[in-house]
Amino acid sequence: MTSILTKLKTVAKQVLRPEQKAKYITEFAYDSLPWIDKSDADIDAFVKQFPAAKELPYDLGEKLLFWRENGYVILGQAIPTEWLDQLWREIEELIEHHEKYQTQVRIDLPEYQANPVQPVKDVPKSVLNGPFLKFNDFHDNSVIGKKIMLHKNIVTFLEAVFGDKVIAMQSLLFKYGSQQPTHQDFAYVVSEIPSHLAAAWIALEDVHIDSGPLSYYPGSHKIKKFDFGNGIFFNGKSTLNPNDFAKYLDAACQRAGLKKKTLLIKKGEVLIWHAALAHGGEEIRNPAQTRKSYVCHYSSEKAYKHHRQSPTTEPVRRTMNGADVFVNPTMPDQEDIFDQGKMM
């Protein structure tokens, strides 16, 4: 965390005038914003000079206008379902033979509170198959995980949003709904330029109302940022916590007249959202109902130059559709060990 914060201070010095520096801890610096978030953004002009716009199965100009106003877009049937089935078969293999693998998981259960992140090999199969668990950065291990993460339908849209090459930062895989309180991603997932952050939520199965679906507030990317007591990022020096964050966001969205939406999309559809879109996981009404999903976070080339596990070394890159994802420098022997996706 210290190294990332040091980088943030360096970026702030580069993009801010002296009189603006104090504001940086409470809002994104205006000069650092992606072009589309600035007041003079001309979407029509941008689309006309963006070569890939004509190759997309959706109207890029329409999607960018919707993004600017609402802070998200939904791409219908964006990912081949056979790719998603392959990804989940690999997760099932990971669970069934977990003692063979090093993939990290986060477990949000009371008995794991002291050590919530562990290698999958050390976690019982019953826990791996249950709720309150997420598989961290499985794309490191999986070729098809990378192909989905860097699918052209996603990365081309984000390239337009950032006005820059896309870099995939991390991924999370869920079997059940997260039931996570309302939050905004930038507070926890820190890019070197915090405003250069976006996420994709990819449905690995049809989403049901009883499965703890994702919910979000359209337009909430424009509300005032929450102050954790030491700025807009949650860390060890924060005096307020994620529950305070959630209460603030729910109240602020209600005051602004923003209506919460529930995401009930089909397998292969994708929600892409802005760094500051307020969202969370609803309560699981049916404990037997899964909500298999794949969440990927992205930044831009100018804003994410190094792997978060090794912020001072040049990363090893995997490139697809003009975007990059970095090889995990702490587990190079685990890279692409699930390689069935090479033939897809």
UniProtKB/TrEMBL annotation:
Keyword flag Oxidoreductase: yes
SUPFAM superfamilies referenced in this protein's UniProt entry, alphabetically: Clavaminate synthase-like
Oxidoreductase among keywords: yes
Gene3D superfamilies linked to this entry: q2cbj1_9rhob like domain
InterPro entries cross-referenced by the UniProt entry: Phytyl_CoA_dOase-like (IPR008775)
Keywords: Dioxygenase, Oxidoreductase
Name of one Pfam family that matches: PhyH
The protein's required cofactors: Fe(2+)
GO MF annotation: an example: iron ion binding
Full protein name: Phytanoyl-CoA dioxygenase
Organism encoding this protein: Spirosoma radiotolerans
Highest classification ranks of the organism: Bacteria, Pseudomonadati, Bacteroidota, Cytophagia, Cytophagales
